[in-house]
């Protein structure tokens, strides 16, 4: 059974396909495409993870809804890394526990959602790794070890400090390159 919020979400998503449309705590959030700084961070991240993803046959998706449960929010991260054949809830929605890494770059209007709302939605859905890149704080936070409805571990690195991605990744991100500290 599709509820009123889900119906409105689908309508807005269909009307605005060029935007990222999410539901967050009972509200529909429409995010514009990222700035050049936002996209530069994503590009630098892609340069660092694409080799590992390609070697393992994983896919990197820039625009997919993450299904967190039947009546849960619907988030659209900036990037999602998934196995070759992830389990899908719908054509446009991957199941949270069928992801390998979700990434959001903080924008002026997304700070609260990226730091607090999304981790509390992703952990119960079994999302193994959620990475938050914050150009304002010049830091990167990794949420890992989901269990009991929350993440068991949060690791933060400032620009220039390495941030280790646990297995199945098994390497450190260069946060200096992500946040422009190497310039």
TrEMBL record:
MF (Gene Ontology): endonuclease activity
Domain Putative restriction endonuclease: 17-168
Database matches in Gene3D superfamilies: tt1808, chain A
InterPro entries: Nuclease_put_TT1808 (IPR012296), Restrct_endonuc-II-like (IPR011335), Uma2 (IPR008538)
Pfam family name, one: Uma2
UniProt keyword annotations, A-Z: Endonuclease, Hydrolase, Nuclease
Record-given protein name: Uma2 family endonuclease
Source organism of the structure: Nonomuraea marmarensis
Taxonomic lineage from the root: Bacteria, Bacillati, Actinomycetota, Actinomycetes, Streptosporangiales
